[in-house]
Amino acid sequence: MDTTESLGYLKGLIEGLDLGNNKKETKVFSAIVDVLSNLVEDIDDMTDGVEMLADQVDAVDEDLADLEEYVYDDDECDCDDCCDDDEDDEEFEVECPLCNTPFTVDAETALNGSVPCPNCGEMLEFEVEEADDDDEDAE
Question: Based on the number of CB atoms within 10 Å of its own CB, is 107 exposed (0-12), middle (13-18) or buried (19 or more)?
Fold first, then answer.
């Protein structure tokens, strides 16, 4: 039984007492029922408001989840905080000794030891030396 039904039941009990309209007890019971009736209306209004807010919060939560997926689910990131692969970011400027074409080589390619020149196809060999601070240089 919800609050509105309980209030109706209480009103029926008071009417069943068959008290006179001019008695003090009848006036007190009537005033109590009126206050309870107002409280029931207020609770119903608040319940409706809370349900509406819950629906809006759910909609915002879904939108936020979509936004987070769009923003954070990229495979590549541009920040320096979460990526510790500084070695992969390092690039070296190389000049082909045969055709004198300059080009860049990333650290992974330099560690592999050789790369063909993009202009003439000459295979360039690299020697990797470890420095004191563990930086790797290509020659």
Answer: buried
Token pair in block for residue 101: 């074409």
CA 77, distance to chain mean position in Å, is: 17
Q: How far is CA 54 from the centre of its chain?
A: 18
- Give the residue-averaged pLDDT of 108-133: 78
Q: What does the H/E/C string look like for 18-76?
A: CCCCCCHHHHHHHHHHHHHHHHHHHHHHHHHHHHHHHHHHHHHHHHHHHHHHHHHCCCC
Give me the numbers of helices (H) and strands (E) for the chain, helices first please: 4, 6
- Find residue 91's DSSP bridge partners: 106
Any idea what DSSP says for residue 90?
-
pLDDT at 80: 57
Average of pLDDT values for 31-60? 94
Token couple for 60: 């915002």
Per-residue tokens: 11: 């009103």
Predicted TM-score (pTM) of the model is: 0.42
